[in-house]
Design brief:
Strand order of the largest sheet: 2-1-3-4-5-6
CATH superfamily of the largest domain: Flavodoxin domain
Oligomer: single chain
Helix content: 25-40%
Largest sheet: 6 strands, parallel
Number of domains: 2
CATH topology of the largest domain: Rossmann fold
Strand content: 15-25%
Number of helices: 9
Number of strands: 10
Mean pLDDT: 93
CATH architecture of the largest domain: 3-Layer(aba) Sandwich
Order of helices and strands: EHEHEHEHEHEHEHEEHEH
Structural class: alpha/beta
Low-confidence stretches: none
Bound molecules: flavin mononucleotide
Distance between the termini: 24 Å
Radius of gyration: 19 Å
């Protein structure tokens, strides 16, 4: 029986939401599909062994891949016995956002069946140019993505290749964002998070951060140099004490793609019992 695993990283919930919908759609076809959170895994090659098809999902950052996902991909072994699919979430456009990771997976031997982009709400809430005045329309998000996910899954299962972003125009568009973003990432990202004096030391950022970028020591919050710019801490700080932009503080944080969304869910992996047994976890 076909077994599918989706490995995903999601800073603020959009990618997790799409991953879960894809998982549900695949399971509806009576196919095993497990969902893993990249941030909760140290090593994935043992897990990959158990599946026929490997999916990768991530949020696009400047048409690039979040650092935490790149690191995860670096750890993957070369293998030619796996099929794969890649999807990314974005607020507007990314050119070759999914094709970029697909190229890396192809170099690792994977046969890529599908690449797709899903437009989701913006999670950058400390830059005025990105601020939207409209309330988030959860029904619209659901409506808009349902059809696309059905088509995406159908194509994967029928091995009908649809490779979004694999054309010269998309590559060029991607490069116009990726080149400046990579420069910014190298130069400034480690020191990206700014802390305001109104911090109440609640420890939420310490708990939520996927890279353990925060520690509370001597009655103050210390920010280490491990930020991957996922915006989770910024959007979930209860007093809006965190941001990346000296000029603008967060006014309206982004709390995820559904009204009942729980941010802690994005950190969890869905482990198959048989896999746990074999790994003797
Ligand atoms: C650092 C950063 C860079 C981003 N760059 C882009 C981009 O180049 N194009 C785009 O459409 N959205 C961009 N976004 C928006 C996110 O990709 C989008 O909101 C995504 O769905 C967030 O997913 P998540 O909730 O799973 O983290 C960026 C967000 C962040 C935090």
């Amino acid at each position: 029986m076909l077994k599918v695993a989706i490995f995903q990283f999601s800073g603020t919930g959009n990618t997790y939401y799409i991953s879960q919908r894809i998982q549900e759609e695949i399971r509806d076809k009576r196919i095993i599909c497990d969902l893993y959170s990249i941030e909760s895994l140290k090593e994935s090659n043992h897990l990959v062994d158990h599946y026929d098809v490997i999916g990768l999902g991530y949020p696009v950052y400047g048409s690039s891949i979040p650092r935490i996902v790149r690191k995860w991909m670096d750890g993957l072994r070369f293998r030619t016995d796996k099929r794969g699919f890649v999807f990314c979430t974005q607020m507007m456009f990314s050119g070759d956002g999914a094709a970029y990771a697909a190229r890396i997976l192809r170099k690792k031997g994977y046969k890529i069946l599908e690449q797709e982009h899903f437009n989701m709400p913006n999670n950058i809430t400390d830059y005025k140019i990105f601020r939207s005045k409209k309330e988030i329309d959860y029904e619209k998000i659901e409506r808009k993505n349902t059809k696309k996910i059905k088509r995406f899954v159908k194509n994967i299962l029928l091995e009908r290749r649809y490779l979004k972003g694999s054309n010269p125009f998309s590559l060029l568009l991607g490069l116009t964002q990726r080149v400046p973003y990579t420069f910014f990432e190298r130069r400034m990202m480690n020191h990206a998070i700014k802390l305001e004096p109104n911090c109440i030391l609640c420890g939420k950022c310490v708990e939520l951060c996927p890279t353990k970028n925060f520690v509370i020591k001597d009655d103050s919050l210390k920010v280490r140099n491990r930020c991957v710019l996922c915006y989770r801490c910024i959007n979930h700080c209860p007093v809006q004490a965190l941001h990346t932009n000296k000029k603008t503080l967060v006014e309206k944080p982004y709390h995820g793609p559904t009204a009942q969304f729980k941010i802690r869910d994005v950190m969890m992996s869905d482990l198959l019992t048989e896999v746990i047994d074999e790994l003797e976890l």
